[in-house]
């Protein structure tokens, strides 16, 4: 498997620095991709702790193949243990149990899609290249974007576009999709979407098909549901002082991360009039990066796909008995 352009890990040095603050222990990259973040983080832990244990998860077999190649030199080091698992990231708890791992020192989630998806026309993620309407991160996922576009009624397509992309022209786009069936290629769909949006609506916000492709990709891969499931699992499995870092790329992802982190950082929830705390609740985590950090201009100049990235980070405060 080859890609035209390697995936450039977003905010790599910042993330590796944050994960380096975590105590000695297992590091999880739950969205491994080409292992750009993971490789740098393992090297940092080798320098700091003299050893490293990485658990890398990815649902995409092509990504795992590339990651295995990029990590091969480190995997040969007797001080390093690397476990790569093909699975969706919300299976983190089950996979850690299978590996006999109770607690971890760090968890990284780099959400969204990578260059290896966008730059390959045959994967169907890009409206700029002609390819099949696929959009599956895991080729064994049962439903493709083409099936959604060609089989859902207009009202369900419209609801999908509103839910996963806040698309204000959702009704017009959905009706246009239905009228243009059968839709078989990415560029065909992009043209239908563009023509469905009033000319005034095409003047801002980038390519007019961006939001539609985002919504279909999220729906095909169940991304938001999986994200909402993994966040409490990741925080629960952190050891005291452990770090959880999440890179999101659109407001729906960031909203879910912000909500989960805020809930975990909440202490006493007793009514204000209570003289003493009766609930006994204490914060599970503290914010390390509360307001989302963004890549700097220099990074965006080199890697324009980093421009949408938002980083949030928390640290585990307490640990219940194992």
Domains counted in the coordinates: how many?
2
Low-confidence stretches: 1-5
Give me the Rg, rounded: 21 Å
Q: What characteristic shape results from the CA principal axes?
A: globular
Strand order of the biggest β-sheet = 3-2-1-4-5-7-6
User: Roughly how many Å apart are the termini?
Assistant: 41 Å
Question: Could you report the average pLDDT, rounded to the nearest whole number?
Answer: 92
Find the structural class using helix and strand composition.
Answer: alpha/beta
Question: What is the fold named in CATH at topology level of the largest domain?
Answer: Rossmann fold
**Name of the CATH first level of the largest domain:** Alpha Beta
CATH architecture of the largest domain: 3-Layer(aba) Sandwich
Q: How can the largest sheet be summarized? A: 7 strands, mixed
H/I helix tally: 14
* Strands, count: 7
Percent of residues in beta strands? 15-25%
Helix content: 40-55%
Provide the CATH superfamily of the largest domain. Answer: Vaccinia Virus protein VP39
- Sequence of secondary-structure elements: HEHEHHEHEHHHHHHHEHEHE
Model description:
This protein has 322 residues and is α/β, with parallel strands linked by helices. The protein folds into two domains: 12-110 and 223-316, Vaccinia Virus protein VP39 (Rossmann fold, 3-Layer(aba) Sandwich); 118-221, DNA polymerase, domain 1. The chain has helices at residues 12-20, 36-49, 61-70, 72-75, 92-98, 115-118, 145-151, 154-165, 170-180, 186-196, 210-221, 223-237, 251-264, 297-302, and strands spanning 26-29, 52-58, 80-86, 104-110, 238-248, 285-293, 310-316. A seven-stranded mixed beta sheet has the order 3-2-1-4-5-7-6, sandwiched between helices. The longest helix has 15 residues, at 223-237.
């Amino acid at each position: 498997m080859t890609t035209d352009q390697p995936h450039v890990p977003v905010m790599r040095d910042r993330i590796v620095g944050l994960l380096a603050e975590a105590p000695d222990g297992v590091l999880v990259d739950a969205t491994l991709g080409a292992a750009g973040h993971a490789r740098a983080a393992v090297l940092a832990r080798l320098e700091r702790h003299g050893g490293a244990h990485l658990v890398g998860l990815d649902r995409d077999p092509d990504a795992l193949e590339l990651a295995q190649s990029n990590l091969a030199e480190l995997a040969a080091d007797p001080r390093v243990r690397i476990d790569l698992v093909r699975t969706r990231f919300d299976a983190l708890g089950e996979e850690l149990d299978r590996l006999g791992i109770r607690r971890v020192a760090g968890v990284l989630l780099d959400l969204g899609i990578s260059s290896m998806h966008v730059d390959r026309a045959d994967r169907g993620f890009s409206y700029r290249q002609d390819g099949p309407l696929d959009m599956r991160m895991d080729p064994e996922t049962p439903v493709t974007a083409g099936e959604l576009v060609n089989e859902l009624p207009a009202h369900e397509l419209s609801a999908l576009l509103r839910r996963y992309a806040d698309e204000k022209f959702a009704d017009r786009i959905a009706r246009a999709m239905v009228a243009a069936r059968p839709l078989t290629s990415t560029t065909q769909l992009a043209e239908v979407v563009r023509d469905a949006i009033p000319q005034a609506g095409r003047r801002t916000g980038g390519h007019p098909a961006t939001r539609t492709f985002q919504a279909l990709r999220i729906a095909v891969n169940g991304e938001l549901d999986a994200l909402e499931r993994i966040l409490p699992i990741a925080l629960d499995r952190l050891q005291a002082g452990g770090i959880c870092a999440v890179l999101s790329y659109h407001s729906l992802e960031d909203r879910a991360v912000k909500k989960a982190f805020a809930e975990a950082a909440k202490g006493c929830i007793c009514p204000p009039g209570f003289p003493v705390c009766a609930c006994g609740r204490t914060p599970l985590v503290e914010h390390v990066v509360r307001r989302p950090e963004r890549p700097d201009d220099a990074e965006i100049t080199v890697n324009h796909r980093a421009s949408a990235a938002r980083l949030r980070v928390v640290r585990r405060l307490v640990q219940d008995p194992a």
